[in-house]
Amino acid sequence: TAELDNRHAISVRSAQSDPALAARAVLVMTPILLVTGPLDGHVALVEEAVRIAAPLDPGLRARLLRVRGDMRRIRARYDEGEADLVAARGLAEEAADRVLVAQILSDLCRLRSDRGAVALAEAAALELDALSASLGDRRLRAAALGALGRARSHRPEQRVEAQGLLETALRAHEELGLLGESVLLMQTLAVSYAESLRHGEATALFSKAHALHQELGNRRGQASTLANLGLLSLQLGAFSEAEAALSRSLRMHRRL
Question: Cα torsion at 217, 220, 223, 228 (round to 10°)?
Fold first, then answer.
């Protein structure tokens, strides 16, 4: 879009003369590009913003490292993403920004869950829950519930408990009007339902999540839910539906 092009131009032009302005332009663009793609060109901008960020205040540097850490998680570069988020947390603590610390803890929970580091994800989720309680922040408390449910959903013996946590977190996010976060919880809960052979509920949630991703213009989310629906159809022996969904998902991922 024209707005993104303008932000990109600002970031490129001000990279040397005004690193703080370049950093803020990158931070504004990132949430949009994370869902719409493509990321390749933006990754280079983020890398440059991080490189020149040394003179900036610790809070801004923490936000840049948080962005890079999430991009590395998306690309399954988990060790590098973890290093970025741990460094970002240290900078957020230096800046005495407890809300940013909590947000980074939430990101760490997600990265560690994605890589299967369940115990570490659970520890970060419990720390997030304690911090969000002390802050009295309902959004962060809801995020902590979701993070804890996501971590515990990896353990078969805790799956029922995890589903309860995810269901509670989903209701809390919906009550707060947090649509983007709600749809991600739907997908996590749907995966857990599928693993519990609750195929009807899983299909319904994946379909609802896909529709919401379309409404939000989230291409990455659409591709992900199509893949989920395709794999679920494959498990159920609906091979033509599976092939159609997986083919569409692959085409979308190639454009991201």
Answer: -110
